[in-house]
Amino acid sequence: MIPELNFVSPLTRQPLTKTPDGSALLGGSDERYPLIDGIPQLLIRSGQVQASSDSHAYYRERASEYDHGIEVMFAMFLADEEQTRRDMFAQLELRPDSRVLEIGCGTCRDTIHLLDMPIDVFAGDLSLEMVLTGRDRLLRAEKNTSRLQLFCADVMHLPFADGFFDAAYHFGGFNLFPDYKEALAEITRVVKPNGRVVVGDEGIAPWLANSEFARILENSNPLFRHRAPLDCIPVDARQVGCRWILGGSFYLISFVKGQGEPPLNLDVTFPGRRGGSHRTRYFGKLEGVAPALRDRVLDAAAAEGISVVAWLEKTLGRAVQNAPSDGVDD
Ligand SMILES: C[S@@+](CC[C@H](N)C(=O)[O-])C[C@H]1O[C@@H](n2cnc3c(N)ncnc32)[C@H](O)[C@@H]1O
């Protein structure tokens, strides 16, 4: 197994140390994260910060019946589950020795296929019951788990340092996360620059929103009323893609982690009457003037055959040069 000391405190992001008897990970003055059945419980106690408690109770009670529900779902869409899952995480573009986070791994129905690759897999879930059911699946299938670390954590407070992963993946629980924007930001935080993020969940494709297909699905499961949360994608995302799978009933968002907002050349000058550049138009705004004066400025610029910005730069520049250097009011 990969050593648990790759984990940091989900509260402070400081490194954790293991107790001498190996029963818990310790952080700060009073942080204690027990290992239950060998699985680190990196969950923040309720009350410390907002945690995903509703989801926790829901999946704790459903771990045993969950797998049957998933088989029914793939049968309903006439889809091959293994192929569908492999297609989904193909978008992570994993390479040999990539380190991948799978959060919300549930009963390890994706994990089992990720383990076929020569990569390090950190598979975590809010619910210990789901993870234990998943671990049984991996043991029954006699999978090599030497490059797998299972853990329990909340997607809203991941126990990893910034940029720890080459890629991060989540499928199936996104619609129940308490804050989509913060969840995507937290998943993206733990991915390296240029690493990939892939998330998907129920959400009918826009062109099917008013179809009978949509009404039938939404009638049986209100989760299909969700829509792809495109407005929650972080501004540092690049090469963003969204496809709809399983007949158009689930969205799958993928992107590459960039840095900050997309680059923009502010100094390209625009042709035409208004002229100027983004820098002059956006950062160089002055107070407004009376409409009659504005019209005279437009006419004066046109008469000289230059853009309004060029005329203003020239005329105001000259006026400022001639103005007294002190005594200027705000
Ligand atoms: C529908 S299941 C999907 C499981 C698995 N990814 C699959 O495709 O079969 C959603 C999973 O997300 C987990 N989950 C829900 N909220 C979570 C949260 N805030 N943090 C981490 N996992 C969460 C649930 O416990 C559950 O196992």
From TrEMBL:
Molecular-function GO terms, alphabetical: S-adenosylmethionine-dependent methyltransferase activity
Protein name per its UniProtKB record: Methyltransferase domain-containing protein
InterPro entries linked: Erg6_SMT_methyltransf, Methyltransf_11, SAM-dependent_MTases_sf
Keywords tagged on the record: Methyltransferase, Transferase
Domain Methyltransferase type as annotated: residue spans: 101-199
Cited Pfam families: Methyltransf_11
GO biological process annotation, one example: methylation
Keyword tRNA processing belongs to the record: no
